[in-house]
């Protein structure tokens, strides 16, 4: 039999709030904003993911698109196969810093009614995604 030793917990210690970096998932597929909707849907299907991070030509994250958003665009009567991702991104796109607290990130997601939120560094590079 193994003896278990219990360490007393300090009652004066305050918990450190969790940050977005602590809770984020890996960034997943990143695509360029000049990609068409049809190609993006194919990439999403092959990667078996529900979202894509969209970047500009400099690699700066410009937004996140979900499968539901892409199919909604594709199903509109004005859709053509030339529609690019940059044409349908919301500007300015919502992001969260990796040092933001989870309370701040959750507030942004609730306020904007988002299921996922990109986590970007100070240069705009995607580090990961927060998902509900």
TrEMBL record:
Ranges for domain CBS: 24-82, 89-132
Membrane among keywords: no
Pfam families with a match to the protein in the record: CBS
Ranges of biased composition (kind: Polar residues): 1-13
Keywords from the named record: CBS domain
Sequence segments annotated as region (Disordered): 1-21
Segments passing through the bilayer: none
Superkingdom of origin organism: Bacteria
CDD domains per the UniProt record, alphabetical: CBS_pair_SF
Protein name as annotated: CBS domain-containing protein
Record organism: Streptomyces rishiriensis
């Amino acid at each position: 039999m193994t003896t278990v030793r219990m360490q007393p917990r300090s009652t004066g210690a305050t918990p450190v709030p969790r940050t977005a970096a602590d809770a984020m998932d890996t960034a997943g597929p990143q695509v360029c904003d000049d990609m068409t909707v049809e190609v993006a849907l194919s990439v999403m299907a092959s990667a078996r993911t529900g979202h894509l991070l969209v970047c500009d030509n400099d690699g700066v994250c410009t937004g996140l698109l979900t499968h539901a958003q892409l199919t909604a665009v594709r199903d509109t009567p004005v859709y053509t196969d030339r529609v690019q991702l940059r044409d349908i991104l919301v500007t300015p796109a919502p992001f969260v810093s990796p040092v933001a607290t989870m309370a701040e990130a959750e507030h942004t997601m609730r306020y904007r009614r988002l299921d996922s939120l990109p986590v970007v560094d100070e240069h705009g590079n995607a580090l990961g995604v927060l998902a509900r």
